[in-house]
Amino acid sequence: MSDHRLVLYHYWRSSSSWRLRWALALKGIPFESRTVNLLEGEQRGAEYLKINPSGTVPCLLIDGKSFGESVPLLEWLEERYPGTPLLPQDPLQRLLVRELVQVVNAGIQPLQNLAVLKHLSSEPQVKKEWAQHWIRQGLHVFSAKVAKGAEGRFCVGDQVTLADLALIPQCYNAQRFEVDLGAYPRLEAIYRRCLATTACDTAAPHRQPDYKADA
C-alpha cells in the first residue's frame, strides 16, 4: 500500500506513460489518473505547464510535488517500493537492464515522439520513414544486447525488469509505424509474453480512459 498520495498525468499512447503505469500496476501502488491530450495540445496549456514546465508526460505528483521523466520516476518507485523488484540482484545484470532502458529511452523514443515528428515534416510518409529508420536501428542494438545477456523468458532473466518496461511500449510504437517485429524474433516473443500478463495489459493503451482506436 502506498504511503504517498500519487497523481499520474499521462496520455494513453505515450510509451513513457505506459512504462510508469506498468510499474505502478506491478507494484500494486494506488494512484489517481489524470489524462493529458497531446494531440489537442493540452500539454502546452498554461494549467499543465504550471504542473510540469517541460510540457511532457508522464508527470507524477508525489504528495503535491511534481516530477517528470519516466526513467528517474521508475528508479524512485524501485527505491521507495522495493516489493516486486524491477532490477535484478546481480550488479552486472542491473547494469545491463539500465543499458537496455537507455537504448530505448535515449536512442529511439525521443526521435519518434510527437514533437520531433511535427517539427520534422508535415508529410506523413516522411515522418513514417524517419521513425522507421530510428526504430529499426535501435531495436537492432537492443536485440544484440539481449542476445548477449542472461537467458530467460524476459529481457534479462525470468522476471520482468525495467528493460521490459522500456521495450514493450517501443514494440507497440514499432507496429504503429509499420516496422516488422519478425526481424527481431526474441524481442517479438518477449513482447507477446509481456502483453499476456495482467499488469502489462492493465497499463496498456487500450485500457486507458482516454484511448481512441482511430487516433
Structural account:
It contains nine helices and four strands. With 215 residues, the protein is an alpha+beta fold. The chain folds into two domains: 8-84, Glutaredoxin; 91-200, Glutathione S-transferase Yfyf (Class Pi), Chain A, domain 2. A four-stranded mixed sheet has the order 2-1-3-4, with helices on one face. Strand 3 (59-62) and strand 4 (65-68) form a beta hairpin. The radius of gyration is 17 Å and the shape is globular. The protein starts with 5 loop residues before the first strand and ends in a 12-residue tail after the last helix.
Map the helices and strands.
Elements: E1 6-10, H1 15-27, E2 32-35, H2 46-51, E3 59-62, E4 65-68, H3 70-80, H4 91-105, H5 114-120, H6 124-148, H7 162-176, H8 185-195, H9 198-203
Parallel strand pairs: 1-2
Antiparallel strand pairs: 1-3, 3-4
Helix pairs in contact: 1-3, 1-7, 4-6, 4-7, 7-8
Uncertain spans: none
Distance between the termini: 35 Å
Which class of secondary structure composition applies to the elements? alpha+beta
* Helix amount: 40-55%
Main attributes?
215 residues; alpha+beta; Glutaredoxin; Glutathione S-transferase Yfyf (Class Pi), Chain A, domain 2; 4 strands
Write a concise synopsis of the structure shown.
The chain has 215 residues and is of the alpha+beta class.
